[in-house]
């Protein structure tokens, strides 16, 4: 990828930087995408998007995302701005804000990636709307991260770091899977 897309990366192409960043920081990207509610294992991204679309009576579109990224205010964006804060400030959106911040921080600190992005303003806005707890780098207790290939959680929203009270055998198995996952996705990755 790096050889074939070197010019795009040097030019700061958003798609090339996005793909390269997610390849190098797969764990952080996966942990964002794989957040899910403990109660029903529903993933947070579609759950959050569907809830907001329902309240706004509007749909998220590629054109809408592009306009938002360019700082343009569209009718679609205005519809989402009128949604009550309770629809925005959910355990899933808290988890997504947490995991996204962790991912962006990792990418920003990576010397192999030319990515200059500050999360200060978005984090400030989220804190103004949903409260300072949204910037605590913790998963809410009702959210977990789906374990790779198992359908079981390997990181839960327990803020105290303790076990969830499940059987010791399952906890040991999940902990071992978590350690295996950390090992597989740590260290230097040459793409």
From TrEMBL:
Residue ranges, annotated region (Disordered): 150-191
Top-rank lineage group of the source organism: Eukaryota
Biased amino acid composition, Basic and acidic residues: 177-191
Comp. bias regions, Acidic residues: 167-176
PANTHER family: SPARK DOMAIN-CONTAINING PROTEIN
Protein name: Uncharacterized protein
């Amino acid at each position: 990828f790096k050889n074939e897309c070197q010019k795009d990366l040097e030019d700061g192409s958003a798609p090339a930087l996005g793909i390269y960043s997610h390849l190098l920081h797969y764990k952080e990207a996966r942990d964002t995408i794989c957040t899910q509610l403990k109660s029903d294992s529903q993933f947070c991204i579609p759950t959050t998007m569907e809830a907001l679309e329902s309240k706004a009576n509007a749909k998220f579109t590629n054109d809408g995302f592009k306009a938002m990224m360019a700082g343009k205010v569209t009718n679609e964006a205005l519809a989402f701005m009128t949604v009550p804060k309770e629809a925005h400030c959910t355990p899933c959106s808290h988890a997504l804000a947490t995991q996204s911040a962790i991912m962006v921080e990792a990418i920003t600190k990576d010397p192999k990636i030319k990515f200059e992005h500050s999360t200060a303003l978005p984090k400030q806005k989220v804190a103004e709307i949903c409260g300072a707890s949204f910037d605590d780098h913790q998963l809410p207790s009702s959210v977990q991260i789906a374990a790779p290939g198992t359908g079981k959680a390997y990181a839960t929203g327990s803020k105290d770091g303790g076990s969830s009270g499940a059987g010791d055998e399952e906890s040991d198995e999940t902990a071992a899977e978590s350690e295996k996952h950390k090992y597989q996705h740590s260290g230097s990755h040459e793409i």
